[in-house]
Model the fold of this input.
Amino acid sequence: MKKEIKQIIRKAEMESRRKGTYPYLTDIIAILRQMLDSFCSGEIEDHKFRKKIVGGLGRIVTEDYSFSESSLGSQLLEIGEQYLNFKSKKG
Done:
């Protein structure tokens, strides 16, 4: 999942450089980085933490219906769902 998050961060960064792009992409990138950091910090194991992060991501992505239906928007919602349902390999 870390690989997929990194790929989406790159896509969002590329998209954010384009003129007239979705205004909340910098916030989305920050959330994606929090998701990535949670693997190292151990917060990934906390379902409440994951739910909070994914809730924020979902609200920002769905702020604009057309963005949420775009390729990037759909990928963001999908990675959010995967992150929320993450199962640790520890237990």
